């Protein structure tokens, strides 16, 4: 997924599609209000470990649970002022293979690295 990256960009990587809301929602909203372009990557929809209420509804399939979780995450991201993308690498266990790691590296790569004031002096030691 292509998303704009600038000096005022923030990236959030979330294990499950609801995690970014519960664990970083306030920070995401604050950064968006401050003009940051916030992008969220959800590694999993949480279709197994995070979706017990959906499964109890009956007649649910894994794809149906994922679709509900996708829609919830998209709505939450829009409210918080962020863009969102989904890797759909599965849930319980959450495992990242090489392809997933390279894909995540491609997402990280455009983001500006934070300035580390010790890097230049340490190089000359």
Automatic annotation (TrEMBL):
Parts forming coiled coils: none
Pfam families attached to this UniProt entry: PIG-L
MF term (GO), any: hydrolase activity, acting on carbon-nitrogen (but not peptide) bonds, in linear amides
Annotated protein name in UniProt: GlcNAc-PI de-N-acetylase family protein
Organism: Klebsiella pneumoniae
Upper taxonomic lineage: Bacteria, Pseudomonadati, Pseudomonadota, Gammaproteobacteria, Enterobacterales
